[in-house]
Q: What sequence folds into this?
């Protein structure tokens, strides 16, 4: 065997959902928005001065940061930007989790967390959710090297009250607590206000879901100035110009269009409630969702078989063949028409 093979990094990577490209596909498998981005994004793109692309982008991102301060109770020094929240989270793990004690996160949660731990050799422990897939906050009141909470959780969609999140932060003031709020805009309450009360809190959000901009890869973190400075130092030891100029301009335009944002979010919430009610009539039990997806099971139907059947009908949902959740399907909420097509297909399944 070639000796160099011993020196190659081996890692089991995170596996994202499929991105099928065929026509007439109903894509409900990666929690994207079914709606186009704000029309103001179209305007920015059509008027964009392409000659500016010869220059490096601003690594301060002033326009985007200023737009975010209009939407959130933070100042520009309390914002960190990255290429999607995956990059922001990866940099947070690298920056904040440098203890010998284990980082804690639930047994069922976003499956990228353990990949980053493996990548950086961070010890971690999975804490069991209860039988209804809820957090048991007391389980996090013990020595640890940091905590990651996804709220609402993924892939379960279950939301944790802000008062419970605050209890976890208060019991863990010696470590950094990350709250991943990728899905917070679909009915939850953000923890962002708490960054002024707790200097060990990092709140992470994304443009990929409620802002219909998964394709531009913009995510951000809110935290105290001190934590943001530490994140910037690590990022600048890796790649200074993470956010390209186009993404910055597009994201800033989107942030300013609050009416369109609210309209899309409200349509998704309405379609979610309709879908849950229809599934219930068909014998499905769906966890209470405050996300743009639902997690559903049916005692009489194999989740894996239903997943394959739906795929044969060009309807893509997500199936995880993992302990505790192998009889559930995660279904992204699409347009009302797409959800009607899904229900129709399930009715025809036998
Ligand atoms: N956090 C959670 C819980 C997610 O489900 C996702 C989407 N896969 C992300 C973060 C990352 O999203 P993005 O990198 O598109 O911002």
A:
């Amino acid at each position: 065997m070639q000796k160099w093979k011993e020196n190659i990094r081996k890692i089991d990577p995170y596996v994202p959902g499929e991105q099928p490209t065929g026509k007439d596909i109903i894509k409900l498998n990666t929690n994207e928005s079914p709606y186009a981005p704000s029309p103001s994004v179209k305007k920015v793109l059509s008027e964009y001065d392409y000659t500016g692309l010869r220059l490096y982008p601003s690594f301060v991102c002033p326009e985007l940061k200023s737009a975010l301060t209009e939407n959130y109770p933070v100042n520009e020094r309390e914002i960190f930007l990255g290429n999607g929240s995956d990059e922001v989270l990866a940099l947070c793990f690298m920056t904040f989790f440098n203890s010998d004690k284990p980082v804690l996160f639930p047994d069922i949660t976003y499956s990228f967390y353990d990949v980053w731990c493996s990548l950086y050799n961070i010890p971690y422990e999975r804490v069991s959710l209860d039988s209804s897939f809820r957090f048991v906050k007391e389980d996090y009141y013990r020595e640890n090297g940091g905590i990651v909470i996804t709220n609402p959780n993924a892939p379960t969609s279950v939301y944790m009250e802000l008062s419970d999140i605050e209890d976890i932060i208060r019991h863990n003031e010696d470590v950094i607590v990350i709250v991943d709020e990728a899905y917070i805009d679909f009915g939850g309450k953000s923890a962002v206000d708490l960054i002024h009360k707790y200097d060990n809190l990092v709140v992470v959000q994304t443009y990929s879901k409620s802002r219909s901009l998964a394709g531009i890869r913009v995510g951000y973190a809110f935290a105290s100035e001190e934590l943001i400075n530490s994140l910037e130092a690590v990022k600048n030891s890796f790649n200074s110009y993470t956010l390209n100029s186009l993404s910055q301009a597009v994201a800033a335009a989107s942030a300013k269009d609050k009416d369109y944002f609210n309209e899309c979010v409200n349509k998704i919430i309405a379609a979610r409630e309709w879908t849950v009610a229809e599934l219930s009539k068909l014998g499905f039990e769906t966890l209470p969702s405050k996300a743009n997806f639902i997690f559903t099971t049916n005692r009489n139907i194999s989740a894996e078989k239903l997943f394959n059947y739906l795929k044969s009908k060009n309807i893509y949902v997500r199936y995880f063949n993992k302990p505790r959740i192998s009889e559930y399907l995660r279904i992204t909420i699409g347009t009302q028409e797409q959800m009607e097509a899904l229900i129709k297909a399930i009715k025809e399944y036998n």
About this structure: The chain has a mean pLDDT of 97. The CA atoms of residues 11 and 119 lie 7 Å apart. The chain is about 35% helix and 15% strand.
